[in-house]
Design a protein that fits this description.
alpha/beta; 347 residues; eight-stranded mixed β-sheet; single chain; 9 helices; 8 strands
Length: 347
Amino acid sequence: MRPVTVVRESLADLVRDPRHTRRGNTVLVGVASILLVVALFAASIALPGLWYVLRTHHYSAAFANAGGLRSGDPVLVSGVPSGRVDSLSVEDGLAVVGFRLDRGQSLGEASTATVGLKSILGNRFLDVTPSGVGDLGPDRRIGVERTTSPYMIDDIGGAVTDLADGLDTAAVGAMIDSLDSILPQDAGATGEAIDDVSAALGVLAREDARISGVVTTTRELTGVLVSQEAGIRALTDQSLIVVTVLTQRREALTALVASLEDLAATVRVLLDEEAEDVDRLLGNMREISETYRRNIGVMDEVLTRMPPGLRAVTDATGNGPWTDVATPTGPIPDSALCALGVMDGCN
């Protein structure tokens, strides 16, 4: 059997029903099976990473102090996991954190990054806040001026040391002496005062939930007022405009009422002074109306009798509404026309 045939039959044995007789080389079948398993295993490992690279973009952020951030820590956007830290390096004295972010998250030119504490055990995460328009440029890097380093234990110790160095012990001693002189020397009275303070603190502790609720409600109310500040300002401006318009309308209506009162007074005076003329005018108008009413019958009779007469004239002339005249001047004598110079050829 030729080598090519052996290889082809061996590969065919991988998918052939095992109940049938195998015609290939069993060694080649085993090697092909092992290579196939290795390829599938490598694909199962590589494909998730490849898919992660394809669905994310690479960014970086420069920090003055990375604060224990490690490769593989999550990247959060508005508290939602959207990527992870890929690399950490030092460039020009700054910690450069490389991370990948989902393609759906776009970072503007004013985006910020903060290293946050995930748990009290020291686990960290990178919190990214998208902001601004445009993009981060070709480097896709958030500058150190827009990043916040975590607060470390060493920083707290240094702050306490600085506080202790700057503490005025003489002033503290004077304060304690002042308290000693102010507090009552009677131990019983001091105990009662402390008991009263403790009782007050106990009341505050028991009402902690209600006080927290009041504080939370006040904070929410303040937030709502702040968020609605623009709307409240616009409503105030619109209310001012409405009040101004109403004031102007009130003045206009007041002037209109005054004018109507003046007009009514003028009409009353006119009617009182010209009552006879007005009565005479009304009488004349009544007589004209009676004349029109009497002439309505005459007009109806004219309209009724005129059409038959016009038809008789039409029948007599044969030229519609026109009547033939033998001479251009009709019944006027020719001598009169010659004297007037209308007719030519007169002797």
